[in-house]
């Protein structure tokens, strides 16, 4: 068993602790670091899981990336892709809904693409979610070349 962040080998107890609390295999240091990120940014657990899944396939994701105005759950900077995890569609307020759209408009204007992924997609279809994001990255790369 190894830490998904630093490849340090970890014991059963640490494996269990990180899996139980974060759903990702991490060493004690990285479990602590990620828990601090969650506390500071209110990061959904699914963003953490998706971040490490994307890291594993070499997508070079960044967690809680500051775009100048707000923190983005996950960013893939070389194709200017921002990924936000939607926690609960049923809980969304009308103000939140229009704010999200406005934010998406501003990031498009700055050359960024923002996609919102429902947390349930990450929870139940992590592999498919990763594959789709890789497809989006490939599409964005092709578009960058075309310009
Ligand atoms: Zn580690």
UniProtKB/TrEMBL annotation:
Q: What is this protein called?
A: DUF559 domain-containing protein
């Amino acid at each position: 068993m190894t830490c998904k962040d630093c490849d340090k080998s970890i014991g059963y107890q640490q494996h269990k602790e990180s899996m139980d609390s974060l759903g990702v295999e991490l060493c004690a240091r990285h479990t602590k670091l990620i828990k601090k990120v969650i506390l500071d940014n209110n990061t959904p657990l699914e963003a953490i899981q998706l971040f490490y899944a994307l890291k594993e396939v070499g997508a070079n994701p960044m967690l809680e990336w500051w775009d100048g105005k707000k923190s983005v759950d996950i960013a893939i900077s070389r194709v200017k892709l921002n990924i936000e995890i939607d926690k609960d569609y049923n809980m969304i307020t009308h103000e939140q809904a229009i704010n999200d759209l406005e934010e998406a408009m501003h990031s498009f204007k700055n050359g960024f693409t923002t996609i919102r992924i429902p947390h349930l997609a990450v929870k139940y279809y992590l592999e498919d979610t990763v594959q789709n994001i890789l497809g989006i990255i490939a599409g964005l790369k092709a578009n960058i070349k075309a310009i």
